[in-house]
Design goal:
With 159 residues, the chain is mainly alpha-helical. 84% of the residues lie in helices and 0% in strands. Helix 1 crosses helix 5.
Length: 159
């Protein structure tokens, strides 16, 4: 994956999650704009790594778009968790900490279930190697985003 795509993706996601100085409506508008930018840059990165044949291209992009739509819904759960943590950061009770973590685990479970289901679907339209390559690229992007979030999101304060 080219570094310029990776950098743009990371910057988009960091911006997406931490637009804290705006009001709620502006925050949501900014979030959606950032997600749109991320979507475009991510698609460019995926295009760059997939090397699809002409016969593979249309079925792949149709399934890719379907998958991204489902992924968007799953990622909403993560974004809501980050927003909830940010809103409660200075005063997190044990109960709230537990709730935040259980919600995070729910997000992880939903994400894994989605990936398992779509891996099977991608293998129906692509050779297994290309299906794996797609999920490798997805996982690299996700790992870069996770690394940046780990840097930017502070540890929970223990009272």
């Amino acid at each position: 994956m080219k570094n310029k795509y990776v950098s743009i993706i990371i910057l988009s996601v960091v911006s997406l999650c931490f637009a804290s100085s705006m009001n709620a409506q502006s925050d949501n508008d900014y979030l959606e704009i950032s997600r749109d930018v991320l979507k475009i840059e991510k698609k460019a990165a995926i295009t760059n790594v997939m090397n699809l044949s002409e016969a593979e291209s249309q079925p792949f992009w149709n399934l890719y778009n379907e998958y991204q739509g489902k992924l968007y819904i799953v990622h909403n759960k993560r974004i809501e968790g980050i927003k909830d943590f940010a809103k409660n950061y200075e005063n997190v009770s044990d109960e709230k900490a537990n709730e935040l973590y259980l919600n995070y685990m729910g997000y992880q479970s939903d994400l894994l279930k989605l990936k398992k289901g779509y891996y099977k679907k991608f293998k129906k339209i692509l050779p297994a190697g290309k299906a794996v390559r797609f999920f490798q690229a997805e996982n690299k992007i996700e790992t870069l985003i996770d690394a940046q979030l780990a840097i930017d999101i502070p540890m929970i304060e223990i009272k």
